[in-house]
Amino acid sequence: MSKFVFVTGGVSSSLGKGLTASSLGRLLKCRGLRVTMCKLDPYINVDPGTMNPGEHGEVFVTEDGGETDLDLGHYERFIDESLSRNSNTTTGSIYSSVISKERRGDYLGKTVQVIPHVTDEIKDRVLRLAAEDVDVVIVEIGGTVGDIEIVPFVEAIRQFRRDVGRQNVCYVHLTLVPYLAPSGEQKTKPTQHSVTELRSRGIQPDVIVCRSDKDISGGLKRKISLLCDVPIEAVVSAVDASSIYEIPLVLHEEGMDAVVCRTLGIDPADHPIALGEWEGLVRRVETAGRPVRIGVVGKYVNLPDAYLSVVEALRHAGFHHGVQLVLDWIDAELVPGLLETDRLHDLDGIVIPGGFGERGIEGMVAAARYTRTHGIPCLGLCLGLQVMVVDVARELAGLAGANSREFDSRTPHPVIDLMPDQADVVDKGGTMRLGAYPAMLAEGSQVAEIYGAGAVTERHRHRYEVNAKYRSRLEQTGLCCSGTSPDGRLVEFIELPGHPYWIGTQAHPEFKSRPDRPHPLFRSLVASALERAEGREPRLIGIDDLDPVG
Ligand code: GLN
User: Fold this and answer.
1) Strand, helix or coil at 371?
2) Residue 416 pairs with which residues in a beta bridge?
3) Ligand 1 neighbourhood includes 463 CB (under 6 angstroms)
4) What's the rounded Cα separation, in Å, for the pair 379 and 162?
5) How many angstroms is it from 505 CA to the middle of ligand 1?
6) Region of residue 23 (left: phi > 0; alpha: psi -120 to 50; beta: else)
7) How far apart are CA 401 and CA 240, in angstroms?
8) pLDDT for 262-303, tens place per residue?
9) Which of 213, 316, 396, 514 is most deeply buried (CB count within 10 A of its CB)?
């Protein structure tokens, strides 16, 4: 039977609950346990698909087309498992099911209440993840204890321990231990208050993870142990790490995974840990060599979390090549003014990531054109591909005023247009082309060589496509539509023969990159950028050139 770990947070948001949960997941996997993860989000949106990435961060897309919280990206990257939409539940989705059941009469005339109906629905969502082939389900609860919206979730996980048995549940609570410079002290009071709040809801934590910018001393751990009633070995000091991939090693050093195992009745001695590969990865991060500058041209550059998976995919590629990735966040709206400066020219490569809405589009088109005409490696992701096509249409195909219909409904040349089945969609939630779709790659093309395959599957999230009516006109310019849907109707990849690296994909390959297995498109982009950085004559990058450096 599966065991369950619930991770809650106190004191403040943004303490890194998702990363702590993911790191624990990695450690348990390194002990040979089979792990899956999920996130319970107390907000009312049915899913984060309709939320502004500039406020909430990226929307992570799962293979089955779930639009989920960005923490699922951390989960997938750390535990190296593909999750499904079932791994993210929100208050909105819980209420939506409860209300449908009520309308169908499933509650047989009962008064429908938070306890038991809403809490039962929450528990069902968690239980659904338990399976024959899962040893541990790690459940992260979004928000902090004390929030109004979190109460039903905390109540549900409290009941959970009684339902499945004490020895099958472990409660981990993450808090902040701030350092007060004037008195030179680390303070435990916020931790005490937050544990008191959790206890007032009937949950006694088994493990307390203390986030701090300084190590938590033995004396301080004893104090927290005494006041919060947890064994001293269950007080974990989680100091700020220099890279997120170091966190599993920090937590293991502190003995966290062993304590969690023991709480769950799993003898750590029966599951010795194999951390060698992960340590190797962290060493590569630490010994990164020459810097490679990659510009990210987008409109949400003030909140880099909006492009979290893109950044991580670039980092993974950097680890692979042993280079130090230097990111230059470029506000797309400012690009036209930057063209006369060295800012773009000094970059070794550019990524134009996904996005929605008109703001910044002309800057992205200008950036695409600049990289095309200056031989700078450029990778366009979804919207990125679309602006590359707009550039080629206007500059090479002579289609003046060409645009995506998303940004100019009256353009004379809608080279990017709504998919036919999207034309009448009114509902904004979950109605895009979402999740994994296959693509066939043209033989001998750069993408086929980079992937080392003739057919690939990538995750999608968009409403617009390259307009089939313009395809031959675009191809006459030399642009190569090097990947299409299996029926040949939709353009999935473009590239520009003769350019060292000018590749666009209608998908979001960043979601599938893993720290020890960088995605081929990012790996090859960074390889090409490295060549530019080294001042060598840029040349075509193929699969044989992708060996790690050093
Ligand atoms: N806005 C574009 C579309 O809907 C691109 C979406 C994206 O970049 N994910 O097609």
Assistant:
1) helix
2) 404, 466
3) yes
4) 51
5) 11
6) alpha
7) 50
8) 999 999 999 999 999 999 999 888 887 889 999 999 999 988
9) 316
User: What is residue 75's three-state secondary structure?
Assistant: helix
HEC readout, 2-67 = CEEEEEEECCCCCCCHHHHHHHHHHHHHHCCCCEEEEEEECCCCCCHHHCCHHHHCCCEECCCCCE
Distance from chain centroid for Cα 199: 32
Q: Find the DSSP H helices in 128-244.
A: 151-164, 189-200, 218-228
DSSP state of 333: G
User: Is the CB of residue 192 less than 8 Å from the CB of residue 169?
Assistant: no
Beta bridge partners of 417: 465
Protein residue with its CA nearest to atom 6 in ligand 1: 462
| CA nearest to 143, candidates 10, 329, 276 | 10
* Gyration radius (Cα) of the chain, Å: 25
Q: Which atom of ligand 1 is nearest to the CA of 355?
A: 8
What pLDDT does 538 receive?
Answer: 52
Q: What is the pTM of this model?
A: 0.93
Tell me: the pLDDT tens digits for 199-244? 999 999 999 999 998 899 999 999 999 999 999 999 999 998 889 9
Contact call for residues 17 and 144 (beta carbons, < 8 A):
no
Distance of alpha carbon 375 from alpha carbon 535, whole angstroms: 12
Cβ neighbours of residue 240 under 8 Å, at least 6 residues apart?
211, 212, 213
User: At 533, which amino acid appears?
Assistant: A
Ligand 1 atom with minimal separation from the 432 CA: 4
What are the strands, taking DSSP E only, across 258-322? 291-298
Question: Tokens 């809608």, residue?
Answer: 414
pLDDT, tens digit (0-9, with 9 covering 90-100), for 406-435: 999 999 999 999 987 777 776 777 788 999
Residue written as token pair 């409660």? 171
In 204-323 the beta strands, taken as DSSP E runs, fall at 207-212, 235-239, 291-298
